[in-house]
Amino acid sequence: MVAWQRLSGGWQLPTALQYWRRHLKAGIPEYLARHYWWAYLSHGAVRVFDHPAIISAILFGNYRILMRAVLKRLKPHNCGRFLQFTSVYGELIPSLHDELDITGFHLTDIAPVQLDSALKKTNAPGGKQGVMASQANVECLPYADNSFDTLLIFFLLHELPEKARKNALLEAMRILRPGGRLIVVEYAELTQSNWLHRNPVSRSILEFVEPYLENFWRGSLRDQLEQAAMGSGKKISQQDEEKFFHGFYRLLDMQIDV
Description:
- By secondary structure, the chain is an alpha/beta fold.
- It is 43% helix and 25% strand.
- It contains 13 helices and 9 strands.
């Protein structure tokens, strides 16, 4: 807990609270400013976390495995107009940008520093058409209905409060055209097959670092996706699930229709 500071001019808000308030004024959602400011909202965070060894450690050595799984599913297809919800650390965005058959690569994130980092990795002069980035909240996106052919959500949903997650999924279904494709890479639901699930110490550490994870992995993501599709007048016509790391992570690959 951050202590209050007594200065010559009187009492001052704690440094962390000042930081949260500054981001809130800039339009950053409260849950992000409060719980994830240290990981996503500063150039210092980018310098610390955007390294292969750090990212691999956070995902217990599975980052490149999961990235290759996404590429394997998308590379054989024409992805059309492609959107990724939020920037992510590591090689995923430049790899997708360089290797996919796309009409246009779009990226949306609420944090300007994350967009800047992604653009530096992808918009090299003389190369392939760069990423088209938009600063926006995934709960209320500035895109027209049925405007994308492919959408990727990579380790975002577990970081959202339940209501924000519901809104983000509704937006995902709204902007995907009929026949479009949605890929979600996330934590799998709690099971007894993985030691990280069974061990109360490891589970408590993960839930402390990720304050919305407990709610996320005790719910049914499939049900939430189906409800979001119905809310947009659509349905999930095909769905495939692939598990990783003894069922700790998963990839959902879905086709969206009316």
